[in-house]
Amino acid sequence: MASSSRYFCDVCNLKLISDKAMEEHLKGKKHQKVEEVTKMRQNQAEKSIFVGNLVKSMSEIEITDYFMKVGSVEKVIMDKEKHQYAIVEFESKELVQQALASKKHTIGGRKVNVKQREWKPYSKPKPPHKHPSAKSTPRGNADDAVIESIAAVDSVAEQMHGLLARLQLSPEDVSLRYLICRLLQSVFQEFMPHVSIAPYGSSVNSYGVKGCDLDLNLTIDSRSLMYQFSTPLAEDETLEKIDKTNLKEFNEGQMLDLTEDGDSATMEMICKIIRQLVPGMKNVRGIPLARKPVVKFCHSQSGLMCDISINNRLALRNTELVSFYGKLHPVVRPLVFTIRQWAKVKQIAGNVGAGPKLTNYALTLLIITYLQMEEVKVLPSVDELEAANENGEQIIDGWNCSFSLDVDVLKSVPKKQSIENLLIGFYKFYAMVDFSSNVICPRKGQIVPVHIFQKEASGLTNEFKFGSLNVQDPLELSHNVAGNVNEKTTKRLSGEIKVAQVVCQSKKFSKHDSEKRSWGLMLLLKEGAGGPLRTDVVGCLEVAFHDCSFSEGFRKKWEGNSDGAHNDWSHQMVAFFKMVLHDVLKFDCHVVSPLQKENTTLESSDSKDKHHSMEEMDINRSRAALKRDLEDDSPLPTKKIKIDKEIDNEVDCEKGWRDSETSFTSDPGCSSEVSSISPDGNDNHAADMDVQSTTSSAISLPGEHLLTCSCKVKFPVWIGRRKLRRILMKLPEFKSNILALESAVTSKVIKEQDLMGDVKFTSGSMGVQLHLRKVLENGDCRLMLQMVPVTEEAECKSFFHFFENFFSKLLSNHVFQ
Ligand code: UTP
């Protein structure tokens, strides 16, 4: 466990100075906790398998469903980024051997690879003289370990500090950056003795997360900077690796001309120097057409991505500025780390290359401006820093970059604010801002309406690229740093801010309730907080009037009056649809529709929790509002339900189910003992439905909107039905009543899943919106049912695939009266 000769605890990855210190350390709480976690992880790994060769469309539920054939599955963790693999944890180690015994595994028709999960110690001593791998520390990923670590503390403030401690650059990471920088500088100085290569951006601005890119600038100005790598001197052996023989290839004529910043010849020259002279670099390429041209490359050993720009002095200076803000007040860094992480999880910031998301720089300026606002006043504006400057003017590329970097000369004293309140305040503040009609100005520390900005800065406005989000660079005043952000991303940003505002104000957020698995930052950072929003539709069903069965009475009543028949049918269809959700699948629902004129509350018979907390309703409503904003007119996948009136016997009914359920059900011999987790421990109801109070939430489809409901499902009631149905259908009371049978099956499924607790939605629940519309065309009438995912798309799809068969099966047995 620990090698006392070197005083190194390899459980905690910690060097100690003496035998005594080692002894104390081993007795300490921290070591014991780490040891306990390590053992727990090892035990988990031994009960787990690695499942590879997956595709995006496969859901956790589908995988759980498949491996339940082997035995009880405790947990399935999916690779959330690429959806290529999953870790399946069984109830016991023996089940791993049983799973491995079978050579071939096919899920949903796709062959998957299964092997024993590898066990890596919780924290491992790094081999000496090797650089930490940037690949091994995914860029700022709030992985499970980070989430776990922030769950164990007592307040949101501690969570924020904990997040910062977990994500920030490690000394090894900083050291590696320093070495690369020195190595490049040594090479380039062979050509120009006065050239300097300096880092900027997140590697040095104090907001960098493990594995973040290394931004470098090549400049002939060797002025010392106000920030630096916080690391000891590099081991110069790295510099000795430069192959100077290659230098002969570069003659005088190829010397760098830095007057032409970033022209293609200069870029080409830089690429050539790096390729041929700098050891250990790969994928070297120039991007001459970028707003600020760069040469990109990768440090092979660590995987660290590097960019070199040329004479980008403004970036060096703005790095000094944002770095200084981080030093001015202790709340700034944890706040920036938290909000950057939230934005990353919600996929609204952290652009790689030119994309429509906010750059981290733009997001940081958004946070700084909020902290500068009169009401908050934790930070001074750049204008105030300029007023306090005593060091003479500094103009860069024509822009006034003079400002004080001296904490002591500042006149305004920062207001005392708790970090938790500042976080909540950030969301509250920006929830009120209409991004397209305002400019966020960190120079002034204000949000300025566009028309006033235009008037006040008339000289700039020709150049300033107004967009859906406007954030003025604090130094290069004509630059909108959010000019790349498109309307859709701005909508997402503003919607996610509103959702976060409601989340932050819920009791669950501030109060550490040990029975709840999610509280505080976990609600914001885990996808479970609501998950990334989906704008796509998972499916659309169509039911045609002429495919349905009608009683003699119905036909007689509406003979010759097709309008009346269609209206009556659609009324009955709405009732039927609600009955399937409420009575058969046990969803709790609140529905408002034009057909009903008033709110109706339907509550599941299996529901213990008859009412949602107002908070949860608020959060759901916020998310729903956001979804409404995001809904677009993208083409929808539509499936027509063909009601097969012939299929009403038990065998065919089972076949239908087989089709509708995942590959698990295609094996008649399988044992379908499925159980599911109960996310909150004791909540026994299957699903909740939330109200969409207006018809505007319906996606733009033809026809008349009949109904919209938003469902949050806690148990995947479509898993494991087949086995239970087989048992129940033998009981006389269910022989000729398919609705009663399916309703009883649902109740049983819920009970089993609640009891066993091991089938789990990625985010603790599944949310879908269901829209029902009536379309009249050429005298025919159809109903369209559209399903929009709110949480994990693959899981919603799994529900959709089940529902399309399930609904059609029940409908084929229904006679409209
Ligand atoms: P990033 O947006 O990459 O910010 O811009 P970051 O803080 O380095 O975060 P990572 O790298 O995503 O983790 C890098 C730097 O580029 C300059 C700023 O100096 C910023 O710190 N920059 C970026 C600008 O000057 N203007 C811009 O519009 C964007």
Could you provide a short overview of the structure?
This protein is α+β, with helices and mostly antiparallel strands and 817 residues long.
Low-confidence stretches: 1-5, 122-142, 222-226, 229-244, 251-255, 528-536, 592-614, 629-638, 644-701
What is the residue-averaged pLDDT? Answer: 76
Write down the domain tally.
Answer: 4
The share of residues in extended strands comes to 15-25%
Strand order of the largest sheet: 21-20-23-24-25-26-18-22
Describe the structure.
The chain has 817 residues and is of the alpha+beta class. It has four domains: 4-116, Alpha-Beta Plaits (2-Layer Sandwich); 171-315, 2-Layer Sandwich (Beta Polymerase, domain 2), CATH 3.30.460; 329-379 and 414-510, Poly(a)-polymerase, middle domain; 534-816, no CATH class. It contains 24 helices and 27 strands. It has an eight-stranded mixed beta sheet, with helices on both faces. Strands 5-6-4-8-7 form a five-stranded antiparallel beta sheet. The N terminus is likely disordered.
List keywords for this structure.
817 residues; alpha+beta; Alpha-Beta Plaits; Beta Polymerase, domain 2; Poly(a)-polymerase, middle domain; 8-stranded mixed β-sheet; 5-stranded antiparallel β-sheet; 24 helices; 27 strands; globular; disordered N terminus; binds uridine 5'-triphosphate
SSE layout and pairing:
Blueprint: E1 2-3, E2 8-9, E3 14-15, H1 19-27, H2 29-46, E4 48-52, H3 60-67, E5 73-78, E6 86-90, H4 93-101, E7 105-107, E8 110-116, H5 144-151, H6 156-167, H7 171-189, E9 196-200, E10 214-219, H8 264-277, E11 281-287, E12 294-299, E13 304-310, H9 313-328, H10 332-345, H11 360-372, H12 382-387, E14 395-396, E15 399-400, H13 419-431, E16 438-441, E17 446-449, H14 450-456, H15 487-505, H16 507-510, H17 521-525, E18 539-544, E19 549-550, H18 552-558, H19 562-584, E20 587-591, E21 600-602, H20 614-630, E22 638-640, H21 650-660, E23 687-691, E24 704-713, H22 721-728, H23 738-756, E25 766-777, E26 780-789, H24 793-812, E27 815-816
The structure holds uridine 5'-triphosphate (UTP).
Uridine 5'-triphosphate is lined by residues 200-202, 205, 207-208, 212-213, 215, 314-315, 318-319, 350, 359-361, 481.
